[in-house]
Specification:
The chain is built from 18 helices and no strands. The chain is an all-alpha fold. The chain starts with a helix and ends in a 13-residue tail after the last helix.
Length: 478
């Protein structure tokens, strides 16, 4: 009898490990598509005949759908079944990737990117919720989230490397077509590894809350993207941002009175998660902006070709893996709050090092030190932030918690890119009389110093507030 139960337990552990591998590969694919098009945009423009404004929407359509639909699909996963929503999202993402890879007209590529974003918004929170339920113990959940967070961060970095390699050596179309085997494998394998799960009690989707919440997020992301392209005072940016505020106020008012709200206000006001999500917002703003600004700086100021710029990010991926390996150990030894404060401060130090990169600096002496320090801090931070942001989630709301975290990351990234790129541009334009390389370097440096300040503010918030926010039973000590 003992032998049978031991074998069954080993099989269950093996299935959970295999499921984690499949879910992490899918997340790698989804995050990779956040920025995989960046290096390939000139080739897409030449092949399909994009105008300048239309080309930006190859990137923006994905962010708009992904960021705007996360809350809706996260809650649907809790109500309709997390495995079902995940598999539907992966299948949709795969089909849209095929459309993008075969596109012959600009509108086909933009439409495919929007559908890709919608598929990501379905799959990503459902996958994170499945991991939270597969690994209920605090220590094993921390390790699983450590792997998840590291793989997600690695996907964001490797998107630039893979895009540069495929675009330079083959065709931009392959940056989409390589998604198909991963999507197909996930659709085939996951039903054999993970049982269906949904909220324990029957509940209906809060339609007014869904409409208002989704509308507020879509308007916010669209307004931020427009602000990044034009200016904050432009009507095409200010209008959607004002609409987002109005819809958000209406959303709060409706949710306060709804019998079964899309996002219970008590869920958002739970202080431990609120502090973690607030820190995530600041951290995401800094890191998304850093990735964008550094890629531009490498190519326009330091003179790297697209493939070389992508390969320059490889050590960043290695640093993230090292930080990810250390993260759960740091939390176990130091506690959640000290580990997060330390990791945020390491990241801020790395950003300050990167801000000092000059036009005549070599890669090893100029770019690499700051890149390694920043990546180790990022690898340390993201898994611990994920654990903190999902503390206390249950069978009833795991999908919602995952969607809130993903929404915060996307909105933080959009805010960071819009604000910090605007600051860098303003600083550069004010110094053009000093020479274009000097002006561009000063703008880059100023924006990265601001990014370091944002991360340091996140560390201060964690140090001051997280210790006062009592975590649920079983969470690593703060």
């Amino acid at each position: 009898m003992t032998s049978v139960s031991t074998t069954a337990g080993a099989d269950a552990v093996g299935r959970r490990g295999a499921a984690l591998v499949v879910l992490c590969f899918v997340q790698f694919m989804l995050v990779l598509d956040d920025n995989v098009v960046s290096v390939a945009l000139p080739s897409m423009r030449d092949d399909l005949g994009f105008g300048t404004a239309g080309l930006a929407w190859v990137v923006n359509a994905y962010f708009l759908a992904f960021g705007g639909l996360l809350l809706l699909f996260g809650r649907m996963a809790d109500l309709l079944g997390r495995r079902r929503v995940f598999l539907t999202g992966v299948a949709l993402f795969g089909a849209a990737s095929l459309v993008c890879g075969l596109a012959q007209e600009p509108w086909q590529l933009v439409a495919g990117r929007f559908v890709q974003g919608a598929g990501s918004a379905m799959a990503s929170p459902a996958a994170l919720a499945l991991i939270a339920l597969l690994f209920p113990g605090s220590a094993e959940r921390a390790r699983a989230f450590g792997i998840w967070g590291g793989i997600a961060a690695l996907g964001g970095t490797m998107g630039l490397v893979i895009s540069g390699a495929l675009t330079g050596l083959a065709s931009w179309r392959w940056i989409f077509l390589i998604n198909l085997p991963v999507a197909l494998a996930a659709v085939v394998l996951l039903p054999r590894l993970v049982p269906e799960s949904r909220a324990g009690r029957a509940a209906r989707l809060d339609v007014p809350g869904a409409v208002l919440g989704t509308g507020a997020l879509v308007a916010l992301v669209y307004g931020l993207l427009r602000a990044g392209e034009s200016s904050w005072g432009d009507a095409t940016a200010a209008g959607p941002l004002v609409l987002a505020v109005v819809l958000a106020v209406a959303f709060v008012a409706v949710e306060a009175r709804a019998a079964e709200p899309l996002v219970p206000l008590s869920f958002l006001s739970f202080r431990f998660r609120a502090v973690a999500n607030g820190a995530t917002l600041l951290f995401s703003a800094a890191m998304y902006a850093m990735a964008f600004l550094l890629m531009v700086h490498l190519q326009t100021v330091l003179g790297y070709r697209p493939l070389a710029a992508g390969l320059a990010y490889l050590p960043y991926g290695a640093g993230i893996l090292a930080g990810m390996w250390l993260s759960s150990r740091a939390v176990a030894r130091l506690g959640m709050r000290p580990a997060l404060v330390m990791s945020f401060l390491i990241t801020a130090a790395g950003l300050l090092l990167l801000s000092g990169v000059a036009p005549d600096d070599g890669y090893a002496s100029g770019v690499l030190p700051g890149m390694l320090v920043t990546s180790i801090g990022c690898g340390l931070s993201l898994p611990a932030l994920t654990v903190a942001a999902l503390t206390g989630t249950t069978e009833e709301n795991a999908g919602l918690g995952s969607a809130v975290l993903s929404s915060v990351q996307q909105i933080g990234g959009a805010v960071g890119v819009a604000v910090l790129v605007a600051l860098a541009t303003r600083r550069r334009d004010g110094l053009t009389s000093e020479g274009s390389q000097y002006a561009a370097t000063e703008g880059f440096s100023f924006a990265l110093v601001v990014a370091a300040v944002l991360v340091a503010l996140g560390a201060a918030a964690i140090a001051a507030l997280l210790g006062r926010a009592r975590p649920p039973e079983g969470t690593p000590d703060v």
